[in-house]
Amino acid sequence: MNARRTRLVLSLELVANFCLFIFQLPLALAPNIGTILVCRFIAGCAGGAPMTNTGGSISDLWERNESGGPMAVYGLSSTFGPPMALVVTGYIGLNAGWRWIFWVLMAMTGGIWVLLVISVPETRHTILLQRKARRVCKQMKKENLRSAESTMDAHADGRKGLHELFAITLTRPFRFLFSEPITTFSAIYNGFLYGLVYLFNEAIPLVFGAPKGHPFNVGQQGLAFLGMAIGPLIAFYLYPLQERYYLRRVAANEGKSVPEARMWMARGGAILIPISLFWFGWTSYRSVHWIVPIIASSFFGAGIYIVILSILNYVVDSYQTYSASALAGVILVRNVVGAGFPLFATQMYQKLDYE
């Protein structure tokens, strides 16, 4: 079931990546705001599929004790990727215009899609066995030679159809989200953290570009996000400390899973987040050198990366076989909250007086 699910998810992600690539074209050529809103919505739906499903695919493809490293790389996609994109696109928008942001994004998503089509191998074991059987048939010239798995599939009355697999894949994350306390509270906390990230992102242009802030242009405001990008990168290189601690705990537990051991570094990350936010807020005045709040943002980014990654790994260890469905529910909430918070962030800062 896991192999079939992984194959289905990878196929859907290829389709989603292609849609994300295609819909950059009307965005780059958009004549009005209506076109931008509609195409951004469709592109967002397509782009959300890889973000939601990749964590589950990792839990399917790697054993529990081996998934920490791949999950650490995946964690950079939601913590290092967004601020680094703002670092790059700030100067693109300033020097070439906003349309070129979508042209560049189209080139990148198209290149990634081609790379995935060429490089992603087949992972379903039954397909691999059937291919091996065909090769052996050709070598031995025996047409009746078949893989054992294909023989079992041919006579299995309970074999699940594609529609049933779709139904399970689409509904199980919601069942976990609303009936499993671990999934529910992980989703709430993860969503809250991601909301903080996007509230923070909206604060950067106010601190480094508003009338009361530092006199940065659009490109320089993008560079101000560099601290948010460096923080997760540093935390990523420290992650082996967490992994060694986890493996020691598993070895001491006779090889059995210890989900709470995944949260060891999260204790430090959870402390970094409020400290860095106060640091950023107290140093956001024009009278304070601009590097000081940027340094604070790097600690915020590191704390966010550590805690979010710990939550994802904790969910994987807690549910094991069904971790893909639980992760999909957690990441769905995270993405929805991340999209919602920027809608009111600027108004909130203005009403509260962000200084």
Order of secondary-structure elements: HHHHHHHHHHHHHHHH
How many strands, what sense, and barrel or not for the largest sheet?
none
How many DSSP H or I helices?
16
Using only CA atoms, what is the Rg? 23 Å
CATH topological fold name of the largest domain? Growth Hormone, Chain: A
Mean pLDDT over the full residue set: 83
Strand content: under 5%
Strand runs, count: 0
Q: Which structural category fits the helices and strands?
A: mainly alpha
Tally of individual domains? 2
- What is the top-level CATH class of the largest domain? Mainly Alpha
The helix content, as a percent range, equals: over 70%
General description of the model:
This is Major facilitator superfamily (MFS) profile domain-containing protein. Residues 1-355 form the Major facilitator superfamily (MFS) profile domain. Pfam families: MFS_1. By secondary structure, the protein is an all-alpha fold. The chain has 2 domains: 2-123 and 160-352, MFS general substrate transporter like domains (Growth Hormone, Chain: A); 133-159, no CATH class. The chain has helices at residues 2-22, 24-28, 33-61, 68-79, 81-96, 99-119, 125-140, 148-154, 162-179, 181-209, 218-223, 226-252, 266-282, 291-319, 323-340, 342-352. The radius of gyration is 23 Å and the shape is globular. The protein starts with a helix and ends with a helix.
